[in-house]
Amino acid sequence: MQPRLIKDTKEKALGKVILVTGPARSGKSEWAEMLAMQSGKAVAYVATATENPDDAEWQKRIQEHQKRRPQDWVTLSVPMELSATLADAKPDTCLLVDSLGTWVANLLAEDEDSWENILAEFLDTVQLVAADMIFVAEETGWGVVPAYPLGRQFRDRLGSLVRQLGVICEIVYLVTGGHVLNLSALGSPLPPKGKAGR
């Protein structure tokens, strides 16, 4: 199912949607945090990761992110119910969702039909929310094809999500090699999947 693209610019102008993507340790989260600070709105940090006291390295990563956030930011723990959280956002807020890769991983147990429904609901919701939204997503498809089925499923689901979200975002940034590229200014959006050549 393809996302419904909103044509009414007045409706779309209610909330700015930004996607920040890049490889691991590229600085994409820091860039997204800076954009959130510059929004001039109250920021809600939507954390899709869950804490795991048995994994010291994972806990350290979470703590690094927590230390960078301003004290007045609200943190929401949302491992799965992302669409509902976005739909409940107030117009005068900026939601920073970090990250979509973790959200996809949290939902890998869903079968394909369920996942497609979740994805369609998410993409539709993004286009109706009045709040500003900044999404952080990992680029996972630039390396070798994963050797195990679950890895391939994760890569394919995340890649498809990022592609479809990128088309409906006002700005898409790629953070890599110590630089930030505004892909929206440098490139052209792909047509929706299945529409090429029509």
Q: Could you please describe the fold and organization of this structure?
A:
By secondary structure, the protein is of the alpha/beta class. The protein has a single domain, classed as Rossmann fold, CATH 3.40.50.300. The chain has eight helices and seven strands; from the N terminus they run αβαβαβαβααβαββα. It has a seven-stranded mixed beta sheet with strand order 3-2-4-5-1-6-7, with helices on both faces. Helix 5 packs across helix 7. The two termini are 18 Å apart. The N terminus is likely disordered.
Please tag this protein with its features.
single chain; 198 residues; alpha/beta; Rossmann fold; 7-stranded mixed sheet; 40% helix; 20% strand; globular; disordered N terminus
SSE arrangement:
Elements: H1 9-12, E1 17-22, H2 28-38, E2 42-47, H3 56-68, E3 74-77, H4 82-87, E4 93-98, H5 100-106, H6 112-126, E5 132-138, H7 149-168, E6 171-176, E7 179-182, H8 183-186
Parallel strand pairs: 1-5, 1-6, 2-3, 2-4, 4-5
Antiparallel strand pairs: 6-7
Helix pairs in contact: 5-7
